[in-house]
Design goal:
Elements (H helix, E strand, L loop, with lengths): L30 H29 L4 H10 L2 H12 L6 H29 L4 H24 L5 H7 L2
């Protein structure tokens, strides 16, 4: 007997609708395609991220942690739109999805900044390369949150209908 989540409301929804674990019950058949598309969008995002970081840090002399946060946050609208449209092929609207995406990204930014700080201050990685460590960790965290919280296809109706 196969469970069909399309016919039932998501039983795992938290009342605030930010954390939705229904995606964990989805078949993994298209996960490889999502990971590949996420990686391509990620390369675009990383390029924007690192360019902003280098401009702020190396050209304008802004502290590497602040420059790192700027590099992480400023590409968000572009990356959200690419992931929504192409990676996850989601129907979540910009208006309802972007705040959730922003919230999950703040969590990813915390992971990013902690990793960047750890690399720079504890491991003594040169500051100019510390951003790359933060990018690597936050990429994994970001995919998991985007896949399970932001662009969850079968649970979008629950999030959308609850906001009506």
């Amino acid at each position: 007997m196969r469970l069909d989540l399309r016919k039932e409301a998501c039983p795992h929804s938290v009342p605030i609708r930010l954390l939705n674990v229904c995606a964990m019950a989805h078949p993994l058949s298209n996960l490889r395609g999502k990971l590949t598309r996420f990686a391509v969008v990620g390369i675009v995002g990383v390029g924007m991220n690192y360019a902003i970081f280098l401009l702020a840090f190396a050209v304008f002399g802004i502290d590497y942690m602040i420059a790192g946060a700027c590099g992480f946050v400023l590409p968000l609208p572009v990356v959200f739109l690419l992931n929504r449209t192409w990676t996850f092929q989601s129907s979540v609207s910009f208006r309802s999805g972007m705040p959730v995406y922003f919230a999950t990204t703040l969590f990813s930014l915390g992971c990013h900044s902690a990793t960047q700080w750890f690399a720079g201050e504890i491991l003594r990685v040169p500051e100019i390369f510390s951003q790359l460590f933060g990018i690597a960790v936050s990429a994994v965290v970001s995919f998991i949150l985007a896949h399970t919280v932001v662009f969850t296809a079968r649970c979008e109706q629950v999030r959308t209908s609850s906001s009506s």
